Amino acid sequence: MKRALMILLSIGVVSFAAKAEATLITYDFNSLASGNYTEAAFNANFLGVAFDNTGGSDFQIQTVSLDPDFSGQAVLNFPYNTAGNSTIATLSSLTDYISVTIGDYDADADDLYLYAYDSLNTLVDSAFFYNPASSYAGNTLSVSTGSASIAWVEFYGVGVNNNSVYWDNFTFNDTSSVPEPSTMLLLGSGLVGFGLVRRKFRG
Question: Is residue 4 part of a domain?
């Protein structure tokens, strides 16, 4: 009976390791009413990430139809035409993947940037897209790393009016629920130790 219990425990640990996967989380902002939000009021709607408007104090929610990438509600930094305006998104825990859709109406051309940094503020990945003046949409930019090392990202658009772009569908890989290799090693060691103690007791 005890041997069977040990086998079941071992299978449980292996199954736990196999099933533990990172979860992709997307915020599309469609549940937010149109209007201006302070950073505090805006961030109260999200878990796992906090957004900072570096050139202002507000985020503006608007209903847009910038096909094919945008639908429903999207975000515009407010005011958007201040020097150095960008959005910084800081994660609660390190991740290995982040993407965001950025675009505009056909008013001017925009250079779209997304930069990813680790906890030491070292650049670990970046993405770029040129959005022409004729575009009535945008593009989804993404950054990724081989392991969970992204602590925060910065994204913005450069055009006639600084950062006069909408952003939507902020997505990140939530790796906080995935056990680290050291955790699995401890679990395995615990089972081995349990077996040794059992043998010693029987001897």
Answer: no
The answer to whether residue 203 is domain-embedded is: no
What is the phi/psi pair of residue 90, to 5°? -105, 125
Residues 65-78 pLDDT 10s: 776 667 789 999 98
Q: In this structure, what CATH number is given to the domain that contains residue 58?
A: 2.60.120
Where are the extended beta strands (E) located within the chain? 23-27, 35-38, 49-53, 58-64, 72-78, 87-95, 97-103, 110-117, 123-131, 138-144, 150-158, 166-174
How many folded domains does the chain comprise? 1
pTM: 0.77
Domain of 31 in residue numbering reads as: 21-187
What is the per-residue pLDDT across 31-56, written as a single tens digit (0 to 9) for each?
999 999 999 999 999 999 999 999 88
